[in-house]
Design a protein that fits this description.
156 residues, mainly alpha, 76% helix, 0% strand, Ferritin-like, DNA starvation/stationary phase protection protein, Ferritin_DPS_dom
Length: 156
């Protein structure tokens, strides 16, 4: 049992918050891979390369979230079935295989994750007394904010 100054009950609640985030991150990673593999159009090459950069970043974020769960003494959810049960996102591609469609969906997903994180930070800090995870969540949120801004800029 981890003795890190946070009660087991609070660590379990924080692990739930992080498990949902991990599921969201993994679904977004998969959707970004899909965009990379299946984008079509006159801007194919540049967007194909950009999507690769994005999924490489997301792979790192997925790992960081899973490791944060482990660092507070819990196991990270790690099955596709569990991710789909926990995520706020949909895995479906509804807007077509062009860059504008994929980018629009990815913006929505990044913004949904930003909102979830923003709603979770105070709870993690105040209710569960885990300032370390609150700080971690703030850092992940800032990464999503920057990516969402860059994606939105493609749509103008």
């Amino acid at each position: 049992m981890a003795q890190i100054g946070i009660t087991e009950k609070n660590r379990a609640e924080v692990a739930k918050v992080l498990g949902i985030l991990l599921a969201d991150e993994f679904v977004l990673y998969t959707k970004t891979r899909n965009a990379h593999w299946n984008v079509e159009g006159p801007d194919f090459h540049s967007v194909h390369v950009y999507f690769e950069e994005l999924y490489d970043e997301l792979a790192e974020w997925v790992d960081e979230v899973a490791e944060r769960i482990r660092s507070i003494g819990h196991y990270a959810p790690a099955s596709l079935k569990t991710f789909l049960e926990l995520t706020h996102l949909t895995e479906l591609n509804a807007k077509g295989n062009n860059s504008k469609g994929f980018i629009g969906e990815l913006v929505q997903d990044h913004e949904a994750i930003i909102t979830y994180i923003r709603e979770s930070i105070d709870k993690v800090s105040e209710a569960y007394k885990d300032e370390g995870t609150a700080d971690f969540l703030t850092g992940i949120m800032e990464k999503h904010e920057k990516t969402a801004w860059m994606l939105r800029s493609h749509l103008k």
